[in-house]
């Protein structure tokens, strides 16, 4: 059985965070495990409270998994503070984590800050050098590199700057671009664009979490990195096109296995 671990925040409404990650792992046929960094009181309208877990229980959760179970890939999402970021990075190094996907979650769609401003430096310093893939959206890329990112030229400049911070691969997500949903993949040598038509929907809660978990699921299945990203792009496109209204605000994406096998995202044999 292939396994993947998510280290992220809990979203009580089930659309983003740990919950989206585990649903994605399951739909892609990978056994999911979780380390919770923070608990958010959250629904489709926004985040009403955040409680960080203490560093000891976070480190102990990571140790409990790695000391016992082979971890095929790990996705890192909401980290909230610089201290949590340092502890997670240190634990991943200590346990020799492989196939590390870092989604540099900073602000929820609803506007709440999920990573303190002063923690961005720790993310760059401690996590980027041990990451295989880093997946910023346009806003996150801009905060990381310190210049505006809003078109293909600036996405390429940002990808080069982020690659220089240590990860093996960078995916700058263009979900917030005008027009097509166009993501940039960069391996340090060449740029490749993964493009899909924009789906007109407001139900996109958790798209970033879902995309990065799908990449981790692909790596856990030992796909080459570009193939894992391409499968994740197909997965998120199907997930958004079947996003649905739930609650009064921004509804979630869709994670039911049948849909993905019908759409050819996962083969029956996987
Ligand atoms: N309306 C859309 N139609 C098609 N694809 C989309 C749409 N919105 C986002 N995507 C795709 O979803 C993936 C996630 O991108 P996005 O830029 O939304 O991430 P994000 O901002 O980190 O997500 P989140 O806001 O959940 O944190 C990317 O592959 C992006 O191209
Ligand atoms: C716990 C947690 N992690 C990540 C996100 C980002 O997802 P989105 O930007 O879609 O709200 C979130 N809202 N909550």
From TrEMBL:
<dbReference type="Pfam" id="PF08543">
    <property type="entry name" value="Phos_pyr_kin"/>
</dbReference>
<comment type="pathway">
    <text>Cofactor biosynthesis; thiamine diphosphate biosynthesis; 4-amino-2-methyl-5-diphosphomethylpyrimidine from 5-amino-1-(5-phospho-D-ribosyl)imidazole: step 2/3.</text>
</comment>
<keyword id="KW-0784">Thiamine biosynthesis</keyword>
<protein>
    <recommendedName>
        <fullName>Hydroxymethylpyrimidine/phosphomethylpyrimidine kinase</fullName>
        <ecNumber>2.7.1.49</ecNumber>
        <ecNumber>2.7.4.7</ecNumber>
    </recommendedName>
</protein>
<comment type="similarity">
    <text>Belongs to the ThiD family.</text>
</comment>
<dbReference type="InterPro" id="IPR029056">
    <property type="entry name" value="Ribokinase-like"/>
</dbReference>
<keyword id="KW-0418">Kinase</keyword>
<dbReference type="InterPro" id="IPR013749">
    <property type="entry name" value="PM/HMP-P_kinase-1"/>
</dbReference>
<comment type="pathway">
    <text>Cofactor biosynthesis; thiamine diphosphate biosynthesis; 4-amino-2-methyl-5-diphosphomethylpyrimidine from 5-amino-1-(5-phospho-D-ribosyl)imidazole: step 3/3.</text>
</comment>
<dbReference type="GO" id="GO:0008902">
    <property type="term" value="F:hydroxymethylpyrimidine kinase activity"/>
</dbReference>
<dbReference type="GO" id="GO:0008972">
    <property type="term" value="F:phosphomethylpyrimidine kinase activity"/>
</dbReference>
<keyword id="KW-0808">Transferase</keyword>
<feature type="domain" description="Pyridoxamine kinase/Phosphomethylpyrimidine kinase">
    <location>
        <begin position="11"/>
        <end position="254"/>
    </location>
</feature>
<dbReference type="InterPro" id="IPR004399">
    <property type="entry name" value="HMP/HMP-P_kinase_dom"/>
</dbReference>
């Amino acid at each position: 059985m292939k396994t993947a671990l998510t280290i992220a925040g809990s979203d009580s409404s089930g659309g983003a965070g740990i919950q989206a990650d585990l649903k994605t792992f399951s739909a892609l046929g990978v056994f999911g495990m979780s380390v919770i960094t923070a608990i958010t009181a959250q629904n489709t309208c926004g985040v009403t409270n955040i409680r960080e877990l203490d560093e000891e229980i976070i480190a102990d959760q990571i140790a409990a998994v790695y000391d016992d179970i082979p971890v095929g890939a790990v996705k890192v999402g909401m980290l909230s503070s610089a201290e949590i970021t340092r502890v997670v990075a240190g634990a991943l190094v200590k346990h020799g984590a492989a196939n590390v996907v870092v989604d540099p979650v900073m602000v929820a769609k609803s506007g709440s800050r999920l990573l303190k401003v002063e923690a961005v430096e720790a993310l760059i310093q401690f996590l980027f050098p041990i990451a295989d893939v880093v997946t910023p959206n346009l806003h996150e890329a801009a905060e990381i590199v310190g210049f505006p990112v809003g078109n293909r030229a600036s996405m390429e400049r940002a990808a080069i700057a982020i690659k220089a911070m240590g990860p093996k691969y960078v995916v700058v997500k263009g979900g917030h671009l005008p027009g097509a949903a166009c993501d940039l993949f960069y391996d340090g040598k060449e740029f490749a664009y993964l493009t899909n038509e924009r789906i007109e929907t407001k139900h996109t809660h958790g798209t970033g979490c879902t995309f990065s978990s799908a990449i981790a699921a692909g790596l856990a299945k030992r796909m080459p990195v570009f193939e894992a990203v391409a499968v994740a792009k197909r997965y998120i496109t199907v997930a958004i096109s079947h996003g649905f209204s739930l609650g009064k605000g921004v509804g979630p994406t869709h994670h039911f296995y049948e849909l993905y096998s019908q759409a050819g995202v996962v083969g029956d044999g996987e």
